[in-house]
Amino acid sequence: MPEKSVEKIKCLIIGSGPAGYTAAIYAARANLFPVLYTGKEPGGQLTITNDVENYPGYPDGIMGPQMMEDFKNQAIRFGTDIRYELIEKVDFSATPHKIWSETGHEIHADAVIIATGASAKWLGLESEQKLMNKGVSACAVCDGFFFKGQEVAIVGAGDTAAEEATYLAKLCKKVHLLVRRNEMRASKIMQERVMKTANLEVHWNTVTEEILGEDGVEGVRIKNTETGKTEILTVTGFFVAIGHKPSTDLFEGWIDMDENKYIKALPGRTFTNVDGVFVCGDAQDHIYRQAVTAAGTGCMAALDAERYLSDKGII
Question: Where are the alpha helices (DSSP H) in the chain?
Fold first, then answer.
């Protein structure tokens, strides 16, 4: 690690999931000599994902942590300086941008690529954590295929929950949608799709008490908050669709965000409202949230950063 004096670099990447590592690969190949800070979860959400079967180039699938190891090694191969630290503070009031790590190391970067991602919101049950990746998932599109022809449950009441429930219904024998209140927050059209799906049953005023099973999901104990009655649903999969939280608190006050704290980017590009600061991956994507789309925007951010630095005469 460099000393705690000011370090001047061309390109800083904050975050280490598919977006951050892909940005690093492209930036390194463009001779931007990128420095990447991994954050507290090197590899991002994929490090808590078992089988990844929908990423191109892995015909037999791959474990999420191994995939991120491959991404990281490719970034290192081209010269990325990877540091296993958190970025704790930024100052984007002028260029070059000022950034401080958790050890107090100060960096002045001509271009900054934000790839801090987002994390799924969970119910907070002990059984939920115990059975994570053993039948418990926060991504129906990622993991629904593994439950083809089976019976599953999904928690949520918004558009994402409605969309994922109807997606699962195309694959699964039956889907139980668990809604905490007596109404959904989802848009009218999404609610109509839910109600018209024959193998999708909505459980109103319902909370999850416990997910059952030892080495895999075997059922879920639910409770009706109006009657107090509990029952056990026999399911092999349990999906949580109660929202995601982007990891963007660090940039509040500097970068324009939407009401849910996703960073706003110029449509079709990775430019933020701050000159020389770019964003990619789930920190700005609340719609797709896939490894392949994150990697794609990581590539875009590196190319945008390269052109920005070239236009400024820095490279």
Answer: 18-29, 64-77, 126-130, 140-143, 159-171, 188-196, 291-311
Number of Cβ within 10 Å of residue 234's Cβ equals 13
Task: Please give the residue range of the domain that contains residue 206.
Answer: 122-240
> In Å, what is the CA distance from 208 to each residue of 23, 175, 223, 314?
40, 15, 6, 55
Give yes or no for a contact between 16 and 310, defined as CB atoms under 8 angstroms apart: no
164 and 234 part of one domain: yes
Location of structure tokens 């075997």: 218
pLDDT in tens, 162-175: 999 999 999 999 99
**Tokens encoding 1:** 């690690």
Residue 75: closest CA among 12, 117, 32, 27: 27
What's CA 274's distance to the chain center, in Å? 23
∠ CA 313-251-43 to the nearest 5 degrees?
A: 90
Q: Is residue 254 domain-shared with residue 285, that is, in the same domain?
A: yes
In sequence order, what are the residues at sequence separation of 6 or more whose Cβ sits closer than 8 angstroms to the Cβ of residue 60?
none
> What pLDDT is stored for residue 221 in this prediction?
98
CB neighbour list of residue 92: distance below 8 Å, 6 or more residues apart: 98, 112, 251, 254, 255, 274, 277
Q: Which residues are identified as catalytic?
A: 139, 142-143
Rounded to two decimals, the pTM is: 0.83
Same domain, 114 and 127: no
pLDDT digits (tens, 9 = 90+) for 77-102: 999 999 999 999 999 999 999 999 99
**What distance, in Å, lies between the first and last C-alpha atoms of the chain?**
25
Integer angstrom CA distances of residue 23 from 262, 300, 315? 19, 8, 17
DSSP strand pairing (230-233 vs 219-224): antiparallel
